[in-house]
Design brief:
211 residues, mainly alpha, 9 helices
Length: 211
Amino acid sequence: MRSSILGRNKLGFIHGTCKRENYGTNLVDLWEHCNAIVLSWLMNCVSPELLSGMVYSSNTGAVWDDLKERFDKVDCSRIFQIHKEISTASQGTSSISTYFSRLRVLSEEFDSFAQIPRCDRAKSLEFVHFMERQKHLQFLMGLNESYEQALSQLLMMVPVPSVNKAYSMLMERERQKTMANASANLDAGEMAALLTNRVGNQQKLKKNYNL
C-alpha cells in the first residue's frame, strides 16, 4: 500500500507532512479531494471488519498511524509459519501456474519481513541475488517428478535462468505435455470408433448372410 501511495506522490497525506492548514483557502477544496482519495485507497485495502473504525474518519494520517501501530509488527510465529509453508510447498495435483503463484505469494510476504542491508550497495545486491536464488531452488524442488528431465536441463544452463524464466520454460513444457496427451486421447478415441464401426459392419454382414 505504501508503494502504491508513493507511486502517486501522496505519501505526505499518511506521513502528516501534507497538512490542511499548510494550504490557503483557495487550495483547501483540492486538499480535501486528495485526502479523500488516499483515505479511500486505505479503506479498499483493509479487511471488511476494519472498515467500521475508518468509515467516519477524515484524517488519513491518523488512520495510517492506527493501522501501522496495530499491524506493522514483526510476528515471529508468522515468519515461522510462512517459512514452513515455503519449505514444504510442492506442485502436487496443481498446475505449474497455480503452484508458482502460491509460492510467489508466500515468498513476497516472507520478503516483507526481511531486512535488506542498505549501507552497502554491493552487499544489498548480493543479498537480493541470494534471495532470488533461494526462490529459484525452492520452486524447482517442489516440482513433480514428471519434470525431472526439464529440471536437470535448467540446472545445467549457464547462466542459470531466473525463476521467472524457469517458470516460462516449464509452462511451455506443460503445454506440450497437455497437447501430447490430448492428441493421444484423440487417437485412442478414433481407434475405438474405428473398431466399433468394424465390429458393427461385420455383424451386419453376418446377419445378411444368414438371411
